[in-house]
Amino acid sequence: MASITYLLLASAAAAQDGGLYEKAIDPNSAFIRALLPENSVARIESKSFSNVEFGLTPYVIVDPGEVEVSSGSATEKVSASSGRFYTAAFDASGAVNVIEDKVTTSPSKANLTFYNLTSHGTVDLFVPQAKANALSGVPAGQGQTVALKAPLTLDFAVVADGETKATVKTVKLTRGGGTTIIAAEDGGEISLWSVESTISR
C-alpha cells in the first residue's frame, strides 16, 4: 500500500521517465474502495479483501466504466470516471451508498475525508486545537474531503446539534498523504475513528 499523492506523482514521473519507477498508474484510471460493517469481506472488481482493518479497504485501481463492488450478498455497480475516487459504503442491512471523494494531489497537503454514518441529519467535524470546523454540515450517509496543510497532528470531534458526540485524538496528517475519519452509530452510541487512505497495487 502507498499514499495517494506519492503513487500518483510517481506514476506521472514514470510516464515521462522510461520506467525508472514501478509500473505507472494509467492516468485514465479510476479508484474505488469499500467501507464495510464489522467482520465483513469485500470484492472490488476481481480484488478481494477480508479482515478489513477498521472497515475500510484501500482504493483499488480500475478502468473507468461500470465496476462491480460487493460485500456479502449486497452488490453495487459504480459508474467510475477517469481520475475520480469513490467509496462504496455498505451498511449492516446490505444497503450501499456510493460517495465520490474529492481527492487532490498536492504534495504539500494532506487529504482529510470524513464520513457521517450516523442518524443525525448533519454533523460537523470540529478541531479543538483550532477552535474551528474542518468540515461543516456533512449530511447523514455522505462524506466530504478537504485538503489541509501538513504535517500536523490534530484531535477531531464530531458535533451534532451543538453537542460533541465522540472524539478521536492524535490523528497524524502527512504531506502527500490521506486520512479518513469515520463517524458511525450503534445503538445510539457514536464512535469516531481514523484510517490511513491508501491505494492497493
Helix-strand layout with pairing:
Layout: E1 2-3, H1 4-16, E2 30-35, E3 42-44, E4 47-49, E5 59-62, E6 65-71, E7 74-80, E8 85-90, E9 96-101, E10 109-117, E11 122-127, E12 132-139, E13 142-149, E14 152-160, E15 163-173, E16 178-186, E17 189-196, E18 198-200
Parallel strand pairs: 2-8, 5-18, 10-16
Antiparallel strand pairs: 1-18, 2-5, 3-4, 3-6, 6-7, 8-9, 10-13, 11-12, 11-14, 14-15, 16-17
Task: Write structural notes for this entry.
Belongs to the AlgF family. It is found in: Periplasm. Keywords: Alginate biosynthesis, Periplasm, Signal. Pathway: Glycan biosynthesis; alginate biosynthesis. This protein is mainly beta and 201 residues long. Helices cover 6% and strands 57% of the residues. It is built from one helix and 18 strands. Strands 1-18-5-2-8-9 form a six-stranded mixed β-sheet. The protein has a four-stranded antiparallel β-sheet with strand order 4-3-6-7, with no helix packed on it. A four-stranded mixed β-sheet has the order 13-10-16-17, with no helix packed on it. The radius of gyration is 17 Å and the shape is globular.
Class derived from helix and strand content: mainly beta
**Uncertain residue segments:** 9-22
For the biggest sheet, the summary is:
6 strands, mixed
* Topology, number of strands: 18
Number of domains: 1
- Give the topology string: H per helix, E per strand: EHEEEEEEEEEEEEEEEEE
Give the spatial strand order of the biggest sheet: 1-18-5-2-8-9
Indicate the mean pLDDT: 88
Number of helices: 1
Rg? 17 Å
Shape: globular
N-end to C-end Cα span: 7 Å
Strand residue percentage: over 45%
Helical amount = under 10%
